[in-house]
Amino acid sequence: MAALLILGGVLLLVLSLIWLLILAFQTSLFWGLGSFFPPVLLLFIVRCWAVARKAVVVMALSLVPLTAGFTQLASSDAEKMQALLSLNWRTTADSVAPVSIELHGELHGQAFKPHYGELIDGVLVLREGDDFFAQRELRIALPERSLATQPPRLRLDVLPQDIGALPEIEIMWLSQERSLPEARRISRGYTLHLDLLSQAPNLLVGNFHLVLPPHFKTSMSGEVQLLTNRLRYIDGQVDRHYDNVSTLEYVIEDYLQRRFAVGSARVQPFETAKTLVSPLDVTINADVLGQRRQLALRLIKDERIGWSIAGDQYPKYAPQTDAVDNAVIPQATVESVQSARVNDRRLRFSLQRLLVNPKKYQRLQVHLQTTKGNQVTGRFVGLDAEGALIISRTVKAPGTVSFTVMPADISDIRLLEP
């Protein structure tokens, strides 16, 4: 939406300037030629106000969508706004898609050349296009059993005759005559081969091969690189200066790992302000050794080390401490905790996973916040024909109210039930 407002404002501004030049030439050749220079153009507006006022009014109106667009962009993506004002567009594009993908094939009968790939929260995404809606996009929701552990190698093979818990595949494409993308979901009858190796600091690299049933006109094969998180790295180390929710989650999990002397700690999604300003007070829920803990933390940003936790003086985690803690816990408790983790759909929940496999989350309580700041809590019913989320909420009268929210309008969504 911000891009459309800015584009509309710029277009209106250019048209008003052209109109102003035409009026100057109609007044006299001197004013027409001189109006190519800003001081003379300003003088023409003052001296010939009766002629130029209509174009000046249109020029002033162009500032309305421009201001609204830049304001919305600054609130939703301050980094992109800064890059836009500094004319550093290429650097921003390169930082968004630092992967190399060599795929040959087609998606819905058109050549598919993705420039971005990720495998985050169990959803593999290959995307072509920089706009909010991709020109063409492939999503694969991998089954939980293939993500129960994270070995250095991820290998998966699916044949058309296979049945059971298979990856859910979704293809999306944007047609010229439509403003919203079209999508198709495929649950079986396809061929898929994945053979990916971990590569520091946050990549999966390897072979990718996919062939969908013939009527989908989709097949591709080649080498891919997939991001496994949205952190930024410098010389192989996490850049703690990067203002992003993923950075805050990394800092908090590192803090919990050292504070409780455990090998890993998982933080549940938490609410933050759109603009990350230090100091930042947050309340987080974390899974530490199978136990849920709620903590109130203050995040501060230092010019030298970046984001950190206020009062953090805990030493670096020693692996042997975790071994002692695990030895104290009875084996039955460990197995029950592992089973609960596998069945808890909140651990890997995200908007992407809900859109790819909505049936998995039907009738569960969710809480979402829109880009305008509105909040809705209720049960997820499903997706309508346009891909919007339907949320049902029980009230005293008339009994039940349904809310319809487009995915593009959602800034944050959380699953409240396992």
Molecular structure report:
This protein is α+β, with helices and mostly antiparallel strands and 418 residues long. It folds into 4 domains: 2-76, no CATH class; 96-227, no CATH class; 235-334; 351-415, Roll (SH3 type barrels). Helices cover 31% and strands 32% of the residues. The protein has helices at residues 2-27, 29-34, 38-47, 49-76, 78-85, 89-96, 245-259, 319-328, 331-343, 351-356, and strands spanning 102-107, 110-111, 116-120, 123-128, 136-141, 153-158, 168-173, 182-186, 191-199, 203-211, 219-227, 233-234, 237-238, 265-267, 280-288, 291-302, 306-309, 365-370, 375-383, 389-394, 400-405, 410-415. The protein has a 6-stranded antiparallel β-sheet, with no helix packed on it. Helix 1 (2-27) packs antiparallel against helix 4, helix 3 (38-47) crosses helix 4 (49-76) and helix 4 crosses helix 5. The longest helix is centred in the first third of the chain and has 28 residues, at 49-76. It is globular, with a radius of gyration of 26 Å. The model is unreliable at 88-97, 321-329 and 331-342 (pLDDT under 50).
Compose a concise summary of this entry:
The protein has 418 residues and is of the alpha+beta class.
Strand content: 25-35%
Strand order, biggest sheet?
Answer: 2-1-11-10-9-6
Q: How many individual β-strands?
A: 22
What is the terminal-to-terminal distance? 34 Å
Pick out the low-confidence regions: 88-97, 321-329, 331-342
Query: What's the rounded overall pLDDT mean?
Result: 81
Query: What's the helical proportion of residues?
Result: 25-40%
Find the structural class using helix and strand composition.
Answer: alpha+beta
Gyration radius, to the nearest Å? 26 Å
Number of helices, counting only DSSP H or I runs of 4 residues or more: 10
Q: Give the overall silhouette.
A: globular
Largest sheet: 6 strands, antiparallel
User: What count of domains describes the coordinates?
Assistant: 4
